[in-house]
Amino acid sequence: MSYSNKYTFAALPRTARGTPLVLGGDPKGRTFLYTNGNSVIIRDIENPAISDVYTEHSCQVNVAKYSPSGFYIASGDASGKVRIWDTVNKEHILKNEFQPIGGPIKDIAWSADNQRMVVVGEGRERFGHVFMSETGTSVGEISGQSKPINSVDFKPTRPFRIVTASEDNTLAVFEGPPFKFKCTKQEHTRFAQAVRYSPDGSLFASGGFDGKIFLFDGATSELKGEIGSPAHKGGVYGIAWSPDGKQLLSCSGDKTCAIWDVETMQRVTLFNMGTAVENQQVSCLWQGKHLLSVSLSGAINYLDVDNPDTPKQVLMGHNKPITCLALHPDRKTVYTASHDGCVTAWNVETGEGRHFLGQGHGNQVNGMRASKDGSLLTCGIDDSLRKAVPAAEGDVPTYTDVAIALGSQPRAMDHIIEDDTTIVATVKELAVIIGGSKQSTVPLSFEPTCVAIDPKSRHVAVGGADNKIHIYTLDVRTLTPSIELTHLGAVTDVKYSPDSKYLVASDGNRKVILYSTDEYKPAHNKEWGFHTARVNCVAFSPDSTRIASGSLDTSIIIWSAAQPAKHTIIKNAHPQSQITGLAWIDDETVVSVGQDANTRIWNVPKA
């Protein structure tokens, strides 16, 4: 059986409060770059649903930048490594790897001829280094600043210059090659956070946490003046030049972005991005006709000059690991939730993601199930079960004010659509909830990990950390224990087949076991043990003939109930990231989520 990755609903940039983020732009103007965890994400600027993810770094990547030719990307990580890889091949073949500094890299700049590169950050012995991109040979020293360097840029025209912005509040200018320290600029009174040359190299601008933006002569480094007075009420996190060099875009912690006229040094447009803390703007990019900014929440905003208070488009999704996944009954919408409590509804056809509104859990969501009308039930580690309902057809659901207290931390839940019955497994008990109120509870002597209900037989399977599956019978609102099935490892997930003939279970001992529900005996004598680490999740296809399993080993395996000896392995389905949830959209389409915050849709045709 062959398979293919149809779409990737990409993760958003990983943001941190008080930390600027660097967006990279393709010199041809087609794509933009950002980082999340150990991934570099490349997105199409016109159609952001088209994305590509590079995951070859072994630790967190902080910055990625295109070479001026557009053929290579350089990405720098928290250990001080720089990887230079090609953008032409789908495999992104590695060209070079260097270790220019011994600590986190914060920014990278290329010379206009693609030959030299400068990286800056928090090294132990130096805060920056200039080297040849082909050989790694040093072409100068980055010295003269006493604290980590946050930003760097290369003058795009000869004679070459490098300018750096540091946490010692200064800018430093270097002349070369070979590059030698020339002077420092001490206009900023707080951390200098961003520095960028204009496209023709005649000017450079700097922004700092003092809210100020200064303009300097590109050749002599003389101060030309201050833009605005000051430019922003909060720290300036990023600046970007317009392609013609006549305007400057800035973004700030005061929750605004602004366009400035370089000649008059006055503000032309102010974009108000909101009032909440997550509306702080931590990065910006001016790419052709597109003006992008990134909010502290990770959302990417396409700014609209004609309507500054409403972005043209906002890209939403997750920037923290995804913990669970649910499917709308119409199978056209996928719901995902991450460990920061953010819940997103994805349109499977367009790839558009929208965040749920209202007061959610505010922290990790451990279980969710959709009900018939498109509303969603979620349980989180605030020890409550909450409901989000769509206001109108096709609307993104909004959390209601009603929260059902569960009394202890929920581990998993399942829901019968037909009679609105929900069973939540908490660390202390199983709770039966019907129509919004708790009907009964059963105390537990084991720690539950997962729960599944078969609406036909009204059997409830509860997997436990005690290596057992506990089967209960549900009689309207009471649960009665019936049988136990033993595994060799902690049971991690259980699912009944849509036709009620099977129960599939996965465990910490790398096994996937299929039971027939007649007597709860194994359905065949084949052992499904091809995963190389703990299996986290399982899911049945709508026609009950195939099972998908996702594991800590980063792979997905598709099994056949009718032909137990046949299976398809999707290796590195989420590279360097465990699979945390699976669902079938139809009999040949699987959706997977992982710790890398990406949601992927796979085409797995039948043999």
Automatic annotation (TrEMBL):
<keyword id="KW-0677">Repeat</keyword>
<dbReference type="GO" id="GO:0003779">
    <property type="term" value="F:actin binding"/>
</dbReference>
<feature type="repeat" description="WD">
    <location>
        <begin position="315"/>
        <end position="356"/>
    </location>
</feature>
<feature type="repeat" description="WD">
    <location>
        <begin position="185"/>
        <end position="217"/>
    </location>
</feature>
<feature type="repeat" description="WD">
    <location>
        <begin position="54"/>
        <end position="95"/>
    </location>
</feature>
<dbReference type="InterPro" id="IPR011047">
    <property type="entry name" value="Quinoprotein_ADH-like_sf"/>
</dbReference>
<dbReference type="GO" id="GO:0007015">
    <property type="term" value="P:actin filament organization"/>
</dbReference>
<keyword id="KW-0853">WD repeat</keyword>
<dbReference type="GO" id="GO:0030833">
    <property type="term" value="P:regulation of actin filament polymerization"/>
</dbReference>
<dbReference type="Pfam" id="PF00400">
    <property type="entry name" value="WD40"/>
</dbReference>
<dbReference type="InterPro" id="IPR019775">
    <property type="entry name" value="WD40_repeat_CS"/>
</dbReference>
<protein>
    <recommendedName>
        <fullName>Actin-interacting protein 1</fullName>
    </recommendedName>
</protein>
<dbReference type="InterPro" id="IPR020472">
    <property type="entry name" value="WD40_PAC1"/>
</dbReference>
<keyword id="KW-0963">Cytoplasm</keyword>
<keyword id="KW-0009">Actin-binding</keyword>
<dbReference type="GO" id="GO:0005737">
    <property type="term" value="C:cytoplasm"/>
</dbReference>
<feature type="repeat" description="WD">
    <location>
        <begin position="229"/>
        <end position="270"/>
    </location>
</feature>
<dbReference type="InterPro" id="IPR015943">
    <property type="entry name" value="WD40/YVTN_repeat-like_dom_sf"/>
</dbReference>
<dbReference type="InterPro" id="IPR001680">
    <property type="entry name" value="WD40_rpt"/>
</dbReference>
<dbReference type="GO" id="GO:0030834">
    <property type="term" value="P:regulation of actin filament depolymerization"/>
</dbReference>
<comment type="similarity">
    <text>Belongs to the WD repeat AIP1 family.</text>
</comment>
<feature type="repeat" description="WD">
    <location>
        <begin position="531"/>
        <end position="560"/>
    </location>
</feature>
<dbReference type="InterPro" id="IPR036322">
    <property type="entry name" value="WD40_repeat_dom_sf"/>
</dbReference>
